[in-house]
Amino acid sequence: MKRRAVVFAEPGAVEIREEEIPAPGPGEVLVKTLVSGISAGTEMLFYRGQVPRGMAVDETIAALGGEVCYPLKYGYAAAGRVIRLGEGVPPDWLGAHVFAFHPHESHFTAAPADLLQLPGGVTPEAAAFLPNIETAVTLVLDGQPLLGERVAVFGQGVVGLLVTALLGQMPLEHLITVDAHAQRRMASLRLGATASFDPAHADLPGDADLTFELSGAPEALDAAIGATGYSGRVVIGSWYGEKRAALDLGGRFHRSRITLISSQVSTIHPALRGRWSPERRYDVAWRMIRRVRPERLVTHRFPVERAAEAYALLDREPGQAIQVMLTYA
User: Are 30 and 12 in contact (CB under 8 A)?
Assistant: First the structure.
């Protein structure tokens, strides 16, 4: 029996490669993957070859070490079951359902310290949303929404929708979302948005206290700044890769004292680190998974053997899909 691994052979080309299933070494376990989630934002940059060559694939995830070069394994949302133990691993790990920041492949080895056991009430499919909801928690922490504020969220992909779901639990004056795809706008209304607009026809009042730019489209950043009122904050959670944002900073921005905030999940804001740790953030993320039930956002499931179809769908017809999952028999 071989393991199946998803490989970006080159930009735009996905292969399924069969490899020997690794044996767990001392202090390691072997995990059989049950499901893994595709990130329609970050992963599509790697799929399209829009990531600067020579930069680190990821500076915080051990399984994604090395520099960007093809062929490349990627992915960071795998949930599975421990099926074998290496020497020295406590026996209660056998059979445990776990989450790992690991590329898309049917089997992999890992140290228990690099795995998170699924808490009660969280299915493997729901657990595959952990990176996205952890990102959403980080974005909300960085934005620091206040009672009665006017909030706008640009981009209603999975991360944008999860930010909307978290903000929808707060007593805001209003929560407006903006996205080009009707399916996502409808989902945002179900998750708590008070109104949702197509950016091609949006006529926003320009008085938001807090705006999130999560679309992944550089041109949306200028629109997000334009939607923000005097002394407002714009949280930039998008990663544009090699794409460039052309900004109009010579108009009202100059006099509006708008604050631009860079937010990224690999670190916690310095002002919060005295009280917030990654473990505390994980605890909040698991609770939000149980509350929000993000598995409702799954629109497509593909067996791993059909991964190329999954990426082609996200690349060519993004309005048809929200969350795409790979499954492993």
Answer: no
The stretch 168-188 carries a mean pLDDT of 97
Distance CA 276, CA 285 (A): 13
**Per-residue confidence at 3, pLDDT binned at 50, 70, 90?**
very high
pLDDT digit string, tens, across residues 216-269: 888 899 999 999 999 999 999 988 877 887 887 877 888 899 999 999 999 999
CB under 8 Å to 47, separation ≥6 — which residues?
8, 11, 12, 14, 311, 314, 315
Q: Which residues contact 273 (CB under 8 A, 6 or more apart)?
A: none
Question: In this predicted structure, what is the pLDDT of residue 288?
Answer: 98
- For residue 58, name the pLDDT band (cuts at 50, 70, 90): low
Residue that has been written with the tokens 């607009």 in this structure: 197
For 225, the token pair is 């700044």
**CATH 3.90.180.10, applies to 2-128+295-327:** yes
CA angle 174, 150, 132 (to 5 degrees): 80
Spans of all domains in the chain: 2-128+295-327, 132-271
Reported residue count of the chain is 329
The residue behind tokens 């996905």 is 14
pLDDT at 136 over 60: yes
Domains 2-128+295-327 and 132-271 share a fold: no
Cβ(198)–Cβ(185) below 8 Å: yes
Query: What pLDDT is recorded for position 16?
Result: 97
Domain 132-271 sits in CATH at 3.40.50.720
Place of tokens 């206040």: 146
Is 97 within 8 Å of 125 (Cβ atoms)?
no
Q: How far is CA 89 from CA 25, 96, 107, 296, in A?
A: 10, 12, 18, 35
User: What interhelical angle do 158-167 and 278-292 show, nearest 10?
Assistant: 90
